[in-house]
Amino acid sequence: MFRYSRNAFWILLAALLVAACGRETPGTSLAGSTTEPAASPDAPPLIARELLFGNPERAGGAISPDGRWLGYIAPRDGVMNVYVAPSSDPDAARPVTNDRLRGIRGFRFAYTGNHVLYGQDVGGDENFQVFAVDLTTDAQQALRPSGARAGVAALSSAHPDEVIVSVNDRDPTYFDLVRIDLMTGEQTRLIENTDFAQVFVDHDFALRYASRQTDDGGQEYFVRDRDEWRSWTTVPQEDALTTEFAGLTHDGATLYMLDSRDRNTAGLFAIDTLTGARRLVHEDVRADVNGAITHPGTGVVQAASVNYLRNEWTVIDPAIAADLDGLRGLGDGEIGVTSRPCRAGTFR
């Protein structure tokens, strides 16, 4: 029987190291010099690291609700910031933010016609603050104090000077909704949330729906009824990732929902909020419906998307068919509608 000894172990290890050092590896000689493998003359050039990991030239384009401004994110001294230009003169873009550290990743135009809203944290702590930039004066203000996490929850053309912000400053576990006037700074807490993962408001900023996770990983949805929350429907765990709200019409009469319950793929349904009647708007046997384009003046769904091999849009309202065809004609890529303007009181 072999008897282990510590000295034998170290002798064996030294022998293995000597043997390994005595072998040549590809591109290396015993003398220690390194030789580069010959490049094939037909090999394609390497992709520059900057193209893969550097900042884009421009990203996140948007147009303001009144159609006056175009905006996008682009590097300013190497850091991503928000640029805005008059829609009549896109070449006159100027930076309206001056972040010097992490860069800004997204923004939205408020309905005031003069404000840009964006979020930013400090050092990656994910305690995002919401900031508003006045495009007339370039003045910037934090809509909520630091030390909590906040985000833009809702904007509405019915209340153009205001924004709904979700914030967990009162209790880090739950997000309240705070209504903020961008012109006066006045703030009103709509709900002290103690139960829900999300709370949804309608076009008039009234509390309408809420959701929370169930014990089995599903979702339970609630509806606001006479100033009380009433359980409305439950989604089992296996459908929780493919069943969610997709919009509410501005008159509050129709709720749109992506729903995969009792189906192979998620379909887009229109639900009468008074009677509960459901109507299938769009489905695809290949894959889930995953998004919708809604009319900015009514909230009615005009197109729905499905991602089978790539994101594809199906027109629901023929009024936007020519617009989507025009976007498809721009190139062989995927289409996403980020914003639509309103001119002379009529959304397009």
Give the arrangement of secondary structure elements:
Layout: H1 6-21, H2 49-53, E1 59-63, E2 69-76, E3 79-86, E4 94-95, E5 107-109, E6 115-120, E7 129-134, E8 140-142, E9 150-154, E10 162-171, E11 174-181, E12 187-191, E13 198-201, E14 207-213, E15 219-225, E16 228-235, E17 244-248, E18 254-259, E19 267-272, E20 278-282, E21 289-294, E22 301-307, E23 311-315, H3 321-328, E24 342-343, E25 346-347
Antiparallel strand pairs: 1-2, 2-3, 3-4, 5-6, 6-7, 7-8, 9-10, 10-11, 11-12, 13-14, 14-15, 15-16, 17-18, 18-19, 19-20, 21-22, 22-23, 24-25
For the biggest sheet, the summary is: 4 strands, antiparallel
> Roughly what percent helix?
under 10%
Number of strands: 25
How are the strands of the biggest sheet laid out side by side?
A: 1-2-3-4
Q: Mean pLDDT score, rounded?
A: 89
Number of domains: 3
CATH architecture of the largest domain, by name, is: 6 Propeller
Low-confidence stretches: 1-6, 11-25, 27-31, 344-348
**What's the CATH H-level superfamily name of the largest domain?**
TolB, C-terminal domain
CATH class of the largest domain: Mainly Beta
Helix run count: 3
CATH topology of the largest domain: Neuraminidase
Percentage of residues in strands: 35-45%
Instruction: Assign an overall shape.
Output: globular
Order of secondary-structure elements: HHEEEEEEEEEEEEEEEEEEEEEEEHEE
- The end-to-end distance, rounded to whole angstroms, is 88 Å
Structural class label: mainly beta
Give Rg in angstroms: 28 Å
